UniProtKB/TrEMBL annotation:
Protein name according to UniProt: F-box domain-containing protein
Gene3D superfamilies: 1.20.1280.50, Ribonuclease Inhibitor
InterPro entries the record matches: F-box-like_dom_sf, F-box_AtFBL13-like, F-box_dom, F-box_SCFL_complex_component, LRR_At1g61320_AtMIF1, LRR_dom_sf
CDD domains in UniProt: F-box_AtFBL13-like
PROSITE patterns to which the protein is assigned, alphabetical: FBOX
Signal peptide, first to last residue: none
Superkingdom: Eukaryota
Residues covered by the F-box domain: 5-55
Amino acid sequence: MNRRIDRISSLPDDVLTLILSFLRTRDAVRTCVLSKRWKNIWASPSVLNFDFEYFKPDDVQKFDQFVIGVLKNRGPSDLDTLIYRGRFICKPSMRWLPKAVRLMPRVIIFNITVVDKFRFPDSVFSCASLENLELTYCSYGRSIIRPKSVALSSLKTLKLGFIRLEENLMQKLFLGCPALENLKLFECELYITEISSDVLKELTLDDCWQYRLHVQISCPGLVSMFIRTSMVSIRTILLENTVSLENACISLYGCDQKVDGNVLNSKFLTGLSNTTKLELYFCHLPECKEQLVKDISNCGIFNNLKSLKIGAWNMVNDFSLVACFLEHSPLLEQLTLRLDRWRDIIQEMLGQDVSLEFEELMRVKEVCDKKDKLRRGVLQEMPRQDVSFHIDCLDTVYISCKKKDRLASKMISVLGQQVKTIRNINIREY
């Protein structure tokens, strides 16, 4: 066989175009020197991926000229995806963007870091073909988006990162994006009082900071929600109308401020009561346990909850809180307890007097973190308590833990004594 035969060049144009669409545009353009066959193929891909990574830091103007040149020499065919990434020491030019928008892209992704404050051109907010828009800006201070108008009739997914969001902009976005189903906000400054939409199905608030007394979420069609924030900021979020919510993940981390009183307000918990899958991750809540137990009791029964995950708890203080959740979840089928710390403390706690009664609980998973370490001296301060499980239909138990972890055998012993219906016990060591 002649290994020097060029088999790739014999492929049809549409196949070569598809291959080039997976490359950064700079690399795709370079293929024009391979042969006459490749001279114009680079101008046809439906994906343009401009990345400043392979340019020198002071070559911002050269990069701008490259982008303009590619768009000037590209064919008139519609553009599916436009990607623009880079870390710039000065503001890049956006003169080329209106021409790119006229190519009717379906997806636009901007991820840039600039030293100076940067304002995104308005032209992208009037692209009727756009279905997915991602704008992530890191600059000196949060970037501000203030389009004169928003007309994105086809937009379904919007992701904003490191943006200062003001009330006027949020109103324009929801009015100008009638088909918006998925909203993701990442490390944004929220100068807003509400997130209100009848069509929104997925909402992500990832490490955003609220600068108003309350942020009200009123989205009757919301199905999935992810919130990661501090234990202080979570108290400003109110779930007013989330009747369709099925999946929710709430992750809270600590902060320098002292946390007292309500952590999850009762309206927030009530907004989660219709979920079928709920994940809660907390870093440290010893001073808030009693209030949380009270709030959970006041919010009613989680009648639809089938899967509950609770992670990163200080189990010395919060195991009874887990029990409270379980007592208010009569149809629960799967429980996952992620034990990031306090492995040996949990062993001692398995003597506590907390009675849990369920009809439908089917599986229990114990997940122990690889970095799990015993904090010496805590056991001496911890009161001994008994925990007894009365679970009629528990069928399978999953225990995932370190090799030769004493917790695994202890859990098997306790569950075996209290739950007579167990048929399968699976131990997953790592």
